[in-house]
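ENTRY TYPE: paired fold submission
RECORD: A
CONTENT: sequence, then structure tokens
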Amino acid sequence: MTEAWAWGQEFQLGYVKHPPMSAWIAGIWFALLPRLDWVFYLLASINAGIGLVGVWQLASLFVSVPGRWFAVLTLVLTPSYTLWALKFNANAPLISTWPWTAYFFLQSVGTQRIGYSVLTGAVGAMALLTKYSSLVLFATLLFVAATHPERRRYFTSSAPFVTLLTGLVLVAPHIWWLFKTGFPTLQYAAAKTHALPVDARQHTLVAAIASLGTLGLAALGTVVAFGKRGRPALRNIHAALADRSSAWLLALACGPLLLIMAGYFAANLRVTTGFLIPAFFAVPVVFLVLGRQQATRSVVRRLKICVAAVWVPLLMASPLLGYYHFATDEPILIEPRRQVAIEATKAWRHTMGRSLRYVSGSERVATAVSFYSPDGPSYVSLESPEASLWATPADLLREGILVICRAGDASCIKQATLFSTKNTIRYADSFASSYLGQISKPQQYVLFLQPPAGVTVVWD
């Protein structure tokens, strides 16, 4: 999450790991609101809410109001729109943009109206600028269009061309950035998604099972909500598998999962659960349509009880669960990043007599310093400073830089040592975090203070 902020405060057309959308959203959000934890979680929650409204709108094309509630509440029983959604990382905007892209696209296919076509291209561009994996959604929607009852009218209209042109115009600046910078995001994606066959198979199998497992509570809630009516629904869905007229609906529900899995078989793609977080947004409504089931008010009422039965106890138990994990988790999971940021900033100000402008080091610690430090310094990648296009070598020389490494991060310490000069101040310090009165075991860090040009300091 702090990485999204660290990038977002430096508005760029792309970043070394991912396209820019998640960083842009975080940057704009914190340009308007204070950098506090609850504000970040509010952003994540609004993002999930926008996605659920998109699911509601998508469901409105097929079912009545109770059916729309069923589609939304079912997804509330999955971690994609709840627990996982609270982590606003590079995948997060996909849970909001994918349902809306599908909704506008189906409206465009059904009506051929230019407005819906433009909105499809615009929101689709947002999805692609979030993660390139959105190409899976686009391929799914292309198959949906090719098998849709209105396919002839759609493909002979201007609608698909308007959508394509809109998307290309909005993505063009990022494409220009890719050519200018040597395609770093594509190189990063290739490095992260390919692996040895054994490793790729293991990751893919685990991701598929885990992702399908996330639908377990939703499936159980559906069984409780429909009761005996669930069996006829399953028989109807089974019959729909052999009905060519249902192909576009099946593709809408299952296309993202099947295409991502096909990537493993076709190109040895190492699939992770992150790929599949937004994949199941259409499953509930397609269940209703192909299962030929009407979600009545009583069905929705029982499903609401299921939602409350799951989330109210978890909400009440969350402080105790937090306390337990704080006491038992690995040190890196309870790292005192806020404390490091505040104390390191104090040390820099006391020593240099000016605010902190640049920070680097162990990635998660350094981006956290960028977020939690009252100075809001710019983050610079230690391994590849050239990737931080907002900080030139001249900038770093003029303003100085603070490098913070975990004591056990030998690579970071080595890089920082090579980066150091005779004026660099190096020291070690320990920091601890706290939760509900419990203090963690102190963790040690090595700090390198590189003074600004022309500044002479005396370390005391």
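RECORD: B
CONTENT: sequence, then structure tokens
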Amino acid sequence: MAFDLGDGVRRERRGGAHEGRGSPRSTAPAAAPINHFKWQVSGDKKYLEQLYTAQIEECQLLEYIDTEGHLWIDRVGMPYTELQRARLGGIALVRGGTYPGHAVSWKFHSPATAQSLAILIPDATAASFKVIAFNLDQIPVRATLTGWHVDPGTWEITQGIDTNGDDVANNSIQTRLVTFERSKSLDFVFPARATTVLTLKLKTPGKPYWLRPDLGLSREDVVVDGQTLHVKIHSVGAAESPATTVVFRDAAGRVVASAPVPLLAAPIDLVPKTCDVDLVLPSGVSIPGGSVEIDPDRQVEEITEINNRVCL
């Protein structure tokens, strides 16, 4: 977009991560999303090469103003949205964003790191997506994939090796069915110096999230009073939560105390719905290293189980 500086000279304004600064380069930051989408449509990785080359150049040219010379003291300027699109199947976090849109997240098990796998997810939807991953290490990489913007249900996973570079598995192909949904994790092993292709497809839809209850607690909801734990449990789901139990596990994982949790309504009127429960621990039971867990037998089908347990 052209604008006038007032001296009769017209300048070009470019968008992107550094909106307002002109760029003499042929590949401006504003073109980055376009190149990503070109790759998604065509499958040609040259567009990603152009995208990342331009971003590296941008970082080098603007290193000072984006670090020590930055206009603000609470951030540095880095292009990171397209890397999220490629590795996570969507953008998990961006300044000004109010809701994450990534399909998955990754955890790499030592000695592997986030740089051990070159990952591309070209076509993520809530019901299917593909992962193309090349292991750069000389040993197999163990990684955990966690679902986020995915629909719940029974998923079919096809895993194999791509030996000819067409992003399709043609060797050592295996297929399995798993239960997969938001916040559920799957473990994979990626062979050394090989391209693994994962194809995940929803085969049988499960109960929608918006029809599920969700119980939760945080560390602040557990108050230690001698050998008694005062626990506040929250109902934060979309449906009434049935009665269940809450337990205390010692450092060895053994259940040493339990208490009933009553039925809790859903906060559909935007008023918090909570209950207070006391866990009385036997004499001599050590609290440090233990944990408080809701619904230890996994009888309630919740939106997520990641807020069901806190460590003390």
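NOTES ON RECORD B: Residues 2-79 form one domain. The helical segments are 32-42, 46-61, 63-66, 81-88.
STATUS: closed
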